Input
Amino acid sequence: MTTSVLLTGIGELATLDPRHGEPLGMLFDAALLIEGTRVAWTGPRTQAPAADAAYDLGGSAVVPGFVDSHAHLVFAGDRAEEFAARMTGTPYSAGGIRTTVAATRAASDDQLAANLVRLVAEMQRQGTTTVEVKSGYGLTVRDEARALRIAQQVTDETTFLGAHVVPPEYADDPAGYVELVTGPMLEACAPHAKWIDAFCERGAFDADQARTVLAAGAAAGLRGRLHANQLGPGPGVQLACELGLTAVDHCTYLSDADVDALASSGTVATLLPGVEFSTRSPYPDARRLLAAGVSVALATDCNPGSCYTSSMPLCIALAVREMGMSPAEALAAATRGGAAALGRDDVGHLAPGARADLIVLDAPSYLHLAYRPGVPLVRQVWRGGRELG
Ligand code: NIG
Ligand code: FE
Output
């Protein structure tokens, strides 16, 4: 029998349901009914239906669980020394990825799985209820396939990123590496992946190589997403738009033509402000994207190199303080925007029918996510209708 749970006494409920108004579908003095794993009803507290159990939240704010659509969580070791060097002037470069590749190859399956589970738990404590996880620190057929097998233990949103960087053993033969990625590596990885991604950037893969990788992935049934325009201007954003990819991520250095392509393609621009914070780089111009009507998502990019935060609240605070997004735009980008970046309509909002993934905040308003940076405001996290312990 399906059980129903009523959350009541919600001071402020951000449903992200357009039927309750844009941008956040906000209800005040509200209640939310969960039946089984799904949201069944939202509305004024005084009109709430009966339920098997009811919890009074005492005026707290409730928002949808965060959808972190970009994370690299299958790895070993860390790069704290590289971070320290960066903070005293050494610039970030794609080459640091190879340090983590060496550590990841040397790690056991159990070590990689334990680190992954630890990071996902850390994310959940900060309100993330859907996370995408990429491979990309194995870069051999065996190591990429095992990264994705391990990632599948925690999420359905797994991404094959064999084209993260050319590994040292192929330094003199990048074309041979692309053949490996699009041949035997893809064959071994496709059964464990939903998405294919490539790092289209100077020092990683050029547009032709990225196009080849994405085409091979599409032929194997994988949907495409792309890392692009992170470290400088480049062709990646327009390639992603031309191919109709679901999302293109970073978007830090954009030309007018890039912004036009994003606006007309519908490809989601995923902004990762934790990267700019952690590499001390200029932030992407979120206002320019929003003004052009581009769909924007926010994600952590959690990885041991360019950004080792698992915190969506931090990304919201940075988006507001450093990128000029309003608190409402930032919350929408971290929830509904992240869902769009994963092609999902069952998460990222709290309309009836959505998966009951939500956060009870230790605050009267969602505004506190940006207003009180660094403060642990996540009191409860519910996923699929159950409170996570
Ligand atoms: O998204 N840009 C490429 N990959 C990661 C960085 C990975 C690393 O430095 O280890 C990113 O920033
Ligand atoms: Fe990334």
